[in-house]
Structure formats: structure tokens, C-alpha cells
Amino acid sequence: MRISSAAASDIGRVRDRNEDSFREAAPYFAVADGMGGHRGGEVASRLALTTIDALREKGDATLGEQVREANRAVHERARTDAKVAGMGTTLTVARVVEGTLQVAHVGDSRAYLLRDHDLQQLTTDHTLVQRLVDIGDITAEEALTHPQRNVLLRVLGTEPSVEVDEHEVALRVGDRVLLCSDGLTAMLDDERIRRVLASTDGHPDVGAARLVAEANEAGGVDNITVIVIDVLDDGGGAA
Length: 239
Ligand code: MN
Description:
The protein is an alpha+beta fold.
């Protein structure tokens, strides 16, 4: 099994800065969507990823440990630098290890798996509207237009420690993984995302570019970041 990937990040059509950051360092991938006044959002998302870069180079930390360390780094900076006080970021990281996809996340940047033309959301948003859906107060449909749909219940950097969700999936040849910021999912529903992914099979660069283009055509109200990861046969027989 081998992987082929492509990433795209775009400012969108409304914002004046792109506060999303991403890492495409196969077999390691991450998306972070920063928030905060001044340049806080950019600082938070970048610092989260550079913290994880350093841990990745050292080796042995689990993804969950990496995300918790990134939380400490962003929180410490926010606490000691008045210019970026209160900043925070989402963080969704993924890596492929021996045919297994590992995902860890905080916030509402999502991971999806396209398998046999079905799209499955691997992560659960840490948002108020997801909570309301979970307890049956509103439907998933209503969540898409809810006035408080941007409210995060969990975010990286605003507290000294954070709870991290972790998932693992045994990958198969033909699988396609998507990581994305909410600038994509606020504009395109899952069926539309599924169709773009399914129709660009084998071309992650085309898929990534088309997702961004369609999110912009739908309004582009937020920064849009996507990473598309294809799981391929390595030609050596056993995958
Ligand atoms: Mn966003």
C-alpha cells in the first residue's frame, strides 16, 4: 500500500486573511483553523503545526500526545503575548502507519473516508450544534443554518489542557481520505463533497482544487483548506 496526496488552501471570497494552516508531509497530514483578533488566528494555527513538526521529527509521541503538546504551546503563547491573548485553533492530524489511518482532533476541522463511493465522517465536531444534534434538540439539517453553528465547545489553546479525540481505521486500497477546515463543510454538504471526491478518483490534485472551487462558487464565506489522500496498491502484491 502506498499513498498519494494533494492539498489546497484558499482565502475564500469574504475574509481578508487566511488563518487556516496545513501540513502535507506524507504519511503525515494536518489541518488547523485559527481564530483570534489581530493576527492571533494565523499565529495559533501555525504554532500548532510547528509544534507538531518538532515532535514528529523526534519520533515516538502518539498523535494524541502531539495534539496535547500543541495545545500547551498555543496556550502558553496566548498567555504570555498580549497581542494574541485569547487566540485558539482547531487541529486535526492524521498519519498512515502500516496500513492504518490514525486521526486525532480538537474542534471542527473534519476527517472523512470515502470507501466504495460512500462518504463517512470519521471525526465528530466539537461544536454547540453537534451537541444539539446529539441530544436531539435540532436535526443535522438545521445545524447547517443554525445561527450559532460557529460556536466551538472545544478548541486548542484556550485552556491549559484539552481533551483529544482519537480514531483508527484499517485502510484498504482504493480508499480516499479527506481532511478539511469548516470553510469547506459550511459551503458543501456531504453529498456534494462525496460526488466531487468520487468523480476525481485517482487525481487528488484535481479533487482538492475542485472542492475549493465549488466552496468558493457556493459563497466562500470562510477560508477553505483540504487535503485529499489516496490509498493505492504499491504494485507489490500484498497491500
Ligand atoms: Mn474556518
